[in-house]
Structure formats: C-alpha cells, structure tokens
Amino acid sequence: MCIGVFIWKAHPLHPLILLSNRDEYHNRPTTPLSWWDDHHGHPIILGGRDDLAGGTWLACTSTGKLAFLTNVRELTSSSESSQPKKSRGDLPLRFLRSNKSVEEFADELVKEDGVEEYNGFNLIIADLRSMSMFYITNRPKSDGVTATPVSPGIHVLSNAMLDTPWPKALRLRKSFKSIMDRYGEGEVPLKELREEPLMKDSAKDDESKLPRIYPPEWEYQLSSIFVDTQTPLGRYGTRSTSTLIVKTNGEWTFSEKYIDNDSLWKEKTIIFNLAKETQNSI
C-alpha cells in the first residue's frame, strides 16, 4: 500500500510537485533512489528499485518522463491468489523505456490483452516535455483498463481510484493544499517541504470511517499516512518518502528518505536539468 499527493499544472513555477510514501514489508530487498545502469539504449531511469521483482513504484527519466504506481486494495480468492501474476512494478518501466507518448502508451494498455494477469493497479504516467499526464487503472474488473487525462490541480492517489475520498487521502490533500497556499506563487524549497510533517502523519482513523475491504484491525493499521506495524510476516510500513520538485526552467529535484538494510533512515537527493542534461548527486 502506498499514497501520494501532487500538484499538476497549477503553479507558475512548478509544473509538478509530488510527495509519495511507499509502504512495503521491511524485509523485501530494495535499492534506494539512484540512476539505473542497465538502460541498454533506453532512456536513463532514476528511481528506487524493487530487487525482488525488478520493477519500481516511482521513477523518471533523464528525458522528462515520469511514472508512479499504487496497488488497489481488494480481496482476492484463494484460487486467484494461487495464480501467478505479472509484477505491477514493471508497468512504470514499460512506459519509461518506451518511445511512446503518454497518450499512445495509455491507449496501448487499454487495448492490450492479458492485463488481467496483473493484480489491481493505479498508474500515473506523465511527460513534462509535452505537459501531458494520464491516470490508468484496471479496476473495477468489469471496466477492463481505463485511461483518463489528469486535470490541473491537486490530486491524491492511494489504494482506490484517483481522488477517492478516503479519510487519510482527504487529510493529506488538506495538509498539502495548506502548504501550497502558504507559498502562493513563490518557489517551494525542497528543504522546507521535506521537513513538513504531512507524510509522517501516523494518525489513524475511526473504524466507522474505514473502507471495510480488509479485516478491521489491518485496515486500522493502514489508515494512517505513515504506516508502521508488525505482522506475522514481519515489520510492514512506510519504507521511503519521496519528494519530486520540477521547475519550469527544466530543473528536477528528486529526493528520497529511506530505511536501509540496518533499519536506519537515510537521505539522498539527485538534481538534474532537462535542458542542460547535467546531473548532480547530494
């Protein structure tokens, strides 16, 4: 389970600002934010990597493409659970490595056979050169795969459809809007944005407000923006918080706070410029 909030084409200096928490089992092998060295003729990818399945939950390219992903919260039958599924983390990579536009890739997924081989997913894809963004999902199953242009403004993507008003999504949107209102039309600095408490919010919701998809105790643990809980399979929760700030001058700042293999929180920031094609790691 993950959650992200972003503002798209609604700020004079920042065409995109994104904050995202990745929730996962702490024992799942992961490589933190870095430039991938296996591009083999494809655009160079910047992001974290799921070392178990090889995919990603959030990444961009040096040429201005972006993709991020969340799972859809749903119950699966025992027969469905036993059937092998494709890794959803491969979907962002497919877009980032393709030469297709946002619209072309979205149309390809909508028409593609075999998308039922993926569990439920929410996928955002964007190209900051063409200033286009689409939301793609394969839920509900009865609708197949649908793709919708994302309108300018503030949006929240959790584990239901884009902008579904789950309580934690509403809290996150309100907190993020308050920050954006505070800066107005001015530049939003990375340092200040990273220090804001909104992505660290561990407040949980009353059981009566939960979507009632999973058992109540599990839903209660997942009802906070920042998740941290123990399960029979090990510690589960927010393993990383990503901040992506894009400026109109072509500068991208991608920062990640993450838990390393020794359970220590670390930070990494990478800055690059689309126009100058320069890269700087902090």
From TrEMBL:
* Organism lineage string: Eukaryota, Viridiplantae, Streptophyta, Embryophyta, Tracheophyta
Q: Which organism is it from?
A: Oldenlandia corymbosa var. corymbosa
Q: What is this protein called?
A: OLC1v1013964C1
InterPro entries attached to this UniProt entry: TANGO2
